[in-house]
Amino acid sequence: MSSSAERVQTNQPSTQGVTLLNQNKKAVTLFGLPLTWFFVITALTLVIMYTGNLPGGMIGSLLIMMVLGELFGWIGDHTPILKTYLGGGAILAIFGAAYMVYAGFIPDGTATLINDFMKDGGFLNFYIAALITGSILGMNKSILIKVGLRYFLPIFGAVVGAMAVGGLLGAMVGFTLRDAVLVITMPIMGGGMGAGAVPMSQIYSELMGNDPSYYISMLVPALALGNVFAIIIASMLNMLGKKMPSLSGKGQLLKGFEYKEEKPSFDIQKMGIGLMAAVLFFSVGSLLAGFIPIHAYAIMIIVVAITKVAGIIPESILNGANQWYKFVAKNWTFALLFGIGIAYTDLGTVLEALTIQYIVTVLGVVVGAVIGAGLLGKLVGFYPIESAITAGLCMANMGGTGDVAVLSSSKRMELMPFAQISSRLGGAIILLLAGLIIPFLV
């Protein structure tokens, strides 16, 4: 009888084992929500959008950008080839949004709403202000001092490498040196649309004739395609860093100076202080840009860095700015990337540029920038991969929008201050260089 009871007990499933199995099994979530709930939210959002009842301004824009941005981001980060080789969620959020506009899947009113929110509403500036302020104020002071003065050598290496490799490959596939350097290399390395291609078209118009709009139509495809390659190569560099750890600082730029940030305990009031600090520093940068002929982002970086090094900022502001930056990066990155796809990415322009010769030359420019920045970065004591990403790829992308995409693709958002140095001050160097070399190439 006892033996029979033991056999019956043995054949029954273990309740404890099932409980442990369920505990070990991770529930699939999207944006921290169960999939079912996220899809219910997505369905409601689409109904609101397609019935023309989307609220105006920030509310409607953020709803679409967060829901569809997180959806595309999740799909991109869970699609094998896309997540491994093509930038994952970052690139799908951008080009998924751009395709929806191109194919007419986004109503014109919604596209206009998001475009206005991104540009006139200043959401891109709001996001970048949080990242710059929080990442610099949360940075180790010694690292900030050691890195700053050495950074321009890798930028110089990126420019030389881009011109050399881009010019060589361009000549091999049939471009003239003028076209390879002025029409392709310069706009790619020029700091984006507003700070690069637009003023560059004015310089070209003054020195070579023709209307600025003529040059804009030539410069934009190179800029857009270069941005695509920068995002893709950023993801590949992240993979390389995992396979060859000696080349990577895992998000730290300066070699031989390791710093582990303490995990903060988040405080809602301090996050509010951080928000105030971010918009204040951005406003100070804009104020000074009215008197100093440098982009507001670049001035903002300098002001934030000086206050950090001088040690005049209270600890509550330092902690608050760091916490606010982490909140913004965690919750709004895919939303911002979706907005970039709507407001800043013309898929038709990118597709028109896709000739083999053009693709080869643009790829050569971006690869040359990576090689030059990586090699000279190593020379001054930087980790080659972080140097290649910041001084190389963030020179070769679309400015502030490209910086977000590249750093998101490479999983190194903490490098935003150096990315902005590349996009803004580096872009200013390219404009100056364009003015100097055009007389020798025309």
Q: Terminal Cα separation, in Å? A: 102 Å
Helical fraction: over 70%
Rounded Rg: 24 Å
Largest beta sheet: strand ordering: 1-2
What percent of residues are in strands?
under 5%
Q: Which stretches of 5+ consecutive residues score pLDDT under 50?
A: 1-10, 17-24
Topology order in helix (H) and strand (E) letters:
HHEEHHHHHHHHHHHHHHHHHHH
User: What is the 3D shape?
Assistant: globular
- The total count of helices amounts to 21
Largest sheet: 2 strands, antiparallel
What number of domains?
2
Mean pLDDT: 84
Q: Please state the structural category.
A: mainly alpha
| Record field, number of beta strands | 2
Blueprint of the fold:
Layout: H1 2-11, H2 15-24, E1 29-30, E2 33-34, H3 35-50, H4 57-77, H5 80-85, H6 88-102, H7 108-118, H8 123-137, H9 141-148, H10 152-172, H11 177-188, H12 193-208, H13 212-243, H14 268-289, H15 296-310, H16 315-343, H17 347-352, H18 356-379, H19 384-393, H20 399-409, H21 416-441
Antiparallel strand pairs: 1-2
Spell out the key features of this protein:
mainly alpha; disordered N terminus; two-stranded antiparallel sheet; globular; 2 domains; 442 residues
Folded structure, characterized:
The model is unreliable at 1-10 and 17-24 (pLDDT under 50). With 442 residues, this protein is mainly α. It has a two-stranded antiparallel ribbon. The longest helix has 32 residues, at 212-243. The protein contains 21 helices and 2 strands. The protein has helices at 2-11, 15-24, 35-50, 57-77, 80-85, 88-102, 108-118, 123-137, 141-148, 152-172, 177-188, 193-208, 212-243, 268-289, 296-310, 315-343, 347-352, 356-379, 384-393, 399-409, 416-441; strands spanning 29-30, 33-34.
